[in-house]
## 1
Amino acid sequence: MASKRKVIVTGFEPFGEHEVNSSWVAVQELERLGVDESVDLHVCEVPVEYQAVQSLLPSLWKEHEPQLAVHVGVSGLATTVTLEHCSHNKGYKRLDNCGFCPASHCCMENGPDCIHSVLDMDAVCKMVNGSGLGVTLSVSQDAGRYLCDYTYYTSLYLGHGHSAFIHVPPLGKPYSSQELGRALRAAILEMLKQLQTHEGHCDRERRHQRHH
């Protein structure tokens, strides 16, 4: 029997005008649904604090060694479930729930300006949108230079790109928690399928190289 694929999914605690954070509500809904029987799902609520992210994410990656980490955040501007292509190192000037922001305004001193996920978000978006789910996905190049972007950058760095970030709209604008949970599930299944194809391709290449 194949070993289970480990997936971490995080949402955020309330902040600012978001007294209920739809990202954590959606993640809890996903946990209730389950991804599928081949997935070992671990969920976690992340504080809206830069320093908490700095200590929490390395321990999550180290303890669980996931194949994929998916971070979910709320965007008051979003009207679709939005997949983020990449994350940025600089520009973190907005204060967190503790009234703190990094003095350098960046995630990682001397880190690359931008890190991309190994996942093809356009392909994930297209597949889920074509599946008749009833929830619309879109793709974005800018995760917003706040805790969402900061978390994504840290996770992409730690996981060598095996990470995704999904922005969800506030609850009821337009989607229910159940719809958001189903959208997360569909996107994660598609991402895992993509990683499996990618890994199979790499294995074939390695075998091919050994024989030559």
Note: Residues 5-210 form a domain with the Aminopeptidase fold (CATH 3.40.630.20).
## 2
Amino acid sequence: MTTTTREEACAAVPVPASLSGELAGYQWMRDHVGESGGEVYRLHGKPGAPDLFLKTGRDLSADDLANEMVRLRWLAGYLPVPDVRHFVGSPDDAWLLMTALPGKTACQVLQANPDAGLAVVDALAEFLRQLHAIPIGACPFNADHAYRLAHARMRIDAGLVEEDDFDEEREGWTAEQVWEAMNRLLPLSPDPVVTHGDFSLDNLLMLDGRVVGCIDVGRAGIADRYQDLAILWNCLGEFDALLQERLLARYGIACADQRRLQFHLLLDELF
């Protein structure tokens, strides 16, 4: 999605009473990137007040927002992430209100200045190393591939996988075909670290050449390091294969494990 279509102005939506006072006076923008089955709004233009992001979802999306809320609060002790202002949850829906991080997404930076690609990748690799250096003994969240496989199977059975959004090399595939191809790559020998879970260019904020934070952390937890590497590697391939090589080199991988790389690319198609 281009930077010109990622969001559009919209009317304020009805919110729980506990949020209405804080949201009064804001202008609303509907954000179309990273909605993950819910709705995302950027709130801006209130004199003397910071920009905010509001996420809302129902059913499984509500569960995802609860997961994101607890992970944001935990990750705040290690990395720059949005501050949770309010969380409202019920058996049917959830509302997560957060501060906005400064800067532009890494995707926006690359689109605006492709010549900065190597410097951007170097900054991303440094931030990824910082994330993966968080002690796994301090992380209370499991996100290994066994856990993710169970969740992926649930999404397939519930008809939640967007088959028309698969990567080009899997265009026309069904979710079941992705599932079968992925399982043919098992078993794996993972190298567990604390992962983001969706380490994409749209989820990393940059300012003055540095990564200043990450968003959409609802899948964060202990998993194979290729969980993050595969997603970022895939995103960079949309710009230049040389950036993919640079990522692996700057992260510290001399020879990529193609089996683990492909497994996590297939797994990501189901989310």
Note: The chain is about 40% helix and 20% strand.
